[in-house]
């Protein structure tokens, strides 16, 4: 079992908390020889308006049918056991959730309030497609349910998620 807990803060204003992240998982494959733990202090990314959106970095796109996808599995998006890494899955799901919620609410002024993800199976082939639906509440909140499918592996469901977004001024 692995557990992770992080707090992301603004580098220029460490009192400004951007996100809390928690997760847990089970090792479902062995790590190849020579691949060790990454020192967290090695990751120093300077925020800039020139950076592309994360969905673009991971090769995601919105198909003409409206579904967000990541194409066939590439080694740079794979975990050590040759499955779609959780990072690209989170980015794909969050991008789809925001897109679906904006369309349902008729505004892009939404803030994520709650987020839950469950990993169901390994994504092995791709493309990886997100199906989702939104429900708009009378209080301006939007609930979104999502499922990621591995189209190249019998359309197998690999991840499910729920999001709650709220309209902001």
- Strand fraction: 35-45%
CATH C-level class of the domain at 51-167 is Alpha Beta
What string gives the helices and strands in order?
EEHEEHEEEE
* Overall helicity: 10-25%
The low-confidence parts are none
Placed side by side, the strands forming the largest sheet appear as: 3-4-6-7-8-5
Overall description:
It is a single chain. The N and C termini lie far apart (41 Å). This protein has a domain at 51-167: Roll (Thiol Ester Dehydrase, Chain A), CATH 3.10.129. It has helices spanning 54-57, 86-105; strands at 2-10, 13-25, 61-62, 68-70, 110-119, 128-136, 141-150, 156-167. It has two helices and eight strands; from the N terminus they run ββαββαββββ.
In short:
By secondary structure, the protein is mainly β. It has helices spanning 54-57, 86-105, and strands at residues 2-10, 13-25, 61-62, 68-70, 110-119, 128-136, 141-150, 156-167. The protein has a domain at 51-167: Hotdog Thioesterase (Thiol Ester Dehydrase, Chain A, Roll).
How are the elements arranged and paired?
Layout: E1 2-10, E2 13-25, H1 54-57, E3 61-62, E4 68-70, H2 86-105, E5 110-119, E6 128-136, E7 141-150, E8 156-167
Antiparallel strand pairs: 1-2, 3-4, 4-6, 5-8, 6-7, 7-8
Task: List key phrases describing it.
two-stranded antiparallel ribbon, 169 residues, Thiol Ester Dehydrase, Chain A, 2 helices, mainly beta
């Amino acid at each position: 079992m692995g557990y992770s807990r992080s707090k992301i803060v603004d580098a220029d204003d460490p009192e400004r908390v951007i996100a809390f992240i928690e997760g847990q998982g089970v090792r479902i494959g062995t790590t190849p020889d020579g691949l060790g733990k990454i020192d967290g202090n090695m990751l120093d990314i300077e925020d800039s308006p020139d950076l592309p959106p994360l969905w673009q970095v991971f090769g995601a796109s919105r198909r003409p049918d409206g579904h967000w996808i990541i194409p066939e599995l590439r080694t740079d998006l794979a975990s050590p056991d040759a499955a779609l890494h959780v990072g690209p899955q989170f980015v794909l799901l969050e991008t789809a959730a925001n897109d679906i919620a904006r369309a349902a609410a008729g505004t892009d002024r939404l803030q994520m309030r709650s987020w839950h993800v469950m990993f169901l199976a390994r994504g092995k082939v791709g493309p990886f497609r997100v199906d989702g639906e939104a429900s708009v509440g009378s209080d301006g909140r939007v609930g979104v349910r999502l499922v990621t499918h591995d189209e190249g592996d019998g359309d197998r469901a690999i991840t499910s998620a729920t999001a709650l977004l709220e309209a902001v001024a």
